[in-house]
Write a structure and sequence with these properties.
Elements lengths: L1 H13 L4 E5 L5 E5 L5 E6 L2 H9 L1 H11 L2 E5 L2 H9 L11 H14 L4 H12 L3 H7 L18 H16 L6 E5 L5 H8 L5 E6 L2 H13 L6 E5 L9 E7 L10 H11 E14 L8 H6 L9 H10 L3 E8 L2 H15 L1 H7 L2 H20 L2 E9 L10 H22 L1
Parallel strand pairs: 1-3, 5-6, 5-8, 6-7, 8-9
Antiparallel strand pairs: 1-2, 3-4, 9-11, 10-11
Helix pairs in contact: 1-2, 2-3, 3-16, 4-16, 8-17, 11-13, 14-16
């Protein structure tokens, strides 16, 4: 059977370390690897599933797993991804990945995330039942890469360190005005006001679920006069701000809207202002994001390489004053999310259904594997209009982090008093 030959060829090339046992729909067994860990056994329930995986592996692996047509009888979906990616980094030349990527790349360039489409895309993911996110995120609901300044720090500690690191790079001073583009559940905006001392924070989001939670949190903290959240597309935002921050939102902008995004940011940023963009990206060459992820998890999403971002920044009249690339930080973050998700799987099953649970297990595993064994990274880009608004050296970052940590401790002492 052709599909068996193709899978045999691909898995022989891919699995060098670890052990993979494959049982076909016809009952034939194949083994791959060197017999070490991880040890994974998979079984196809029907022959069309085998050919589907051969023809479009990036899309069909997730679909077949969720549908139960690719059964993992020993190990987990993350273990299987490790076997397939740790040596090949996802490049299985025997399967038609390159041709499919070229076709999808042309389609990606034509697609535009206008305001209406952007809101639909955001609702697809972020307007899910809020109880879901409370079961696997940290207590502040930070749904972006944490910052592990200590490898042994908890998820809560790493997310606090992320907010501290970003606030330090923004160089927030008391009384300054801040725009938070893609403000999530409000944690970053509240931190910038409560800890960093910002005079005013405006957060804009397209998620109605997140907006409701953010406004409640601002009211509970008695900060409605300083921290306000709006259901608003960034392109419709008005005003002039000392600082702009955007965390985990740029992935949803879309390549065709990069010019509009950065031109908008330039128009909103004061001449002596500073912006910090925190976004998932990739360190390789441009190609479309995994099609299973964009179809089922993040419609309209794209993970850019720097060469896709920089021209739009330059055309907008902004300059890059600092770049930091976070590598395995998101792998550690996703590991914590995945473990929490699986620990609460029965509760999530009651919120949704088995298909949803399998889909999200696959999403979290695919995302973690992209940072561990492929080229996914996180970019932190500091932007300005002038070359004299940021200090000459990076010493100020550590100095400001120390001051922010002291402010966090003082806040905690006041709470517990």
């Amino acid at each position: 059977m052709l599909s068996e030959k193709l899978l045999d060829l691909a898995f022989t090339r891919a699995v060098k370390h670890g052990s993979l046992e494959m049982t076909t729909a016809g009952g034939r067994r194949f083994t791959f690897g060197d017999g070490t860990e991880p040890q994974v056994s998979i079984r196809f329930t029907d022959a069309p599933a085998q050919m589907a995986l051969c023809l479009h592996p990036e899309l069909k692996l997730g679909e077949l797993f969720v549908e139960g047509r690719l059964v993992i009888e020993n190990g987990t979906i993350l273990d299987l991804l490790q076997l397939l990616l740790q040596d090949t980094h996802g490049e299985l030349d025997e399967l038609p990945l390159h041709r499919l990527r070229k076709i999808r790349a042309k389609m990606m360039r034509r697609a535009e995330n206008n305001a209406a489409r952007s809101k639909r895309n955001v609702a697809h993911h972020y307007d899910l039942d809020g109880r879901l996110y409370s079961l696997f995120l940290d207590s502040d609901r930070q749904y972006s890469c944490a910052y592990f300044d200590d490898p042994d720090v908890s998820l809560e500690g790493a997310q606090m360190a992320k907010k501290r690191h970003i606030a330090a790079k923004l160089m927030v001073d008391p009384g300054q005005s801040i725009l938070d583009i893609g403000s999530g559940w409000g944690g970053m905006g509240l931190y910038l006001a409560q800890v960093a001392g910002a005079g005013s924070v405006k957060g804009v989001t397209l998620s109605e679920e997140q907006l409701e939670v953010s406004r409640k949190r601002s009211a509970t903290a008695c900060l409605q006069d300083r921290v306000q959240f709006e259901l608003q597309d960034y392109r419709l935002t008005k005003g002039s701000f000392d600082r702009i921050v955007s965390v985990g939102m740029f992935e949803h902008v879309g390549v065709s809207s990069y010019d509009a995004y950065f031109q908008t940011c330039r128009n909103l940023l004061k001449a002596d202002g500073v912006m910090l963009l925190h976004t998932i990206g990739r360190s390789g060459t441009p190609y479309p994001t995994n099609p299973w992820i964009t179809k089922y998890i993040f419609p309209g999403g794209h993970l850019p390489v720097l060469s896709e971002i920089m021209p739009a920044i330059e055309r907008a009249g902004l300059m890059v004053t600092d770049i930091e690339i976070l590598r395995l930080h998101y792998a550690y973050t996703l590991k914590a999310w995945r473990e929490r998700f699986m620990a609460h799987r029965e509760e999530i099953l009651r919120l949704y259904d088995e298909r949803f649970c399998r889909m999200w297990e696959c999403y979290l595993a695919m995302s973690e594997s992209a940072f561990r064994w492929q080229d996914a990274v996180v970019f932190q880009l500091q932007l300005a209009q002038r070359n004299d608004v940021v200090p000459l050296t990076r010493d100020y970052i550590a100095e400001r982090e120390t001051a922010l940590k002291e402010a966090e401790q003082n806040m905690e002492l006041k709470r517990s008093a």
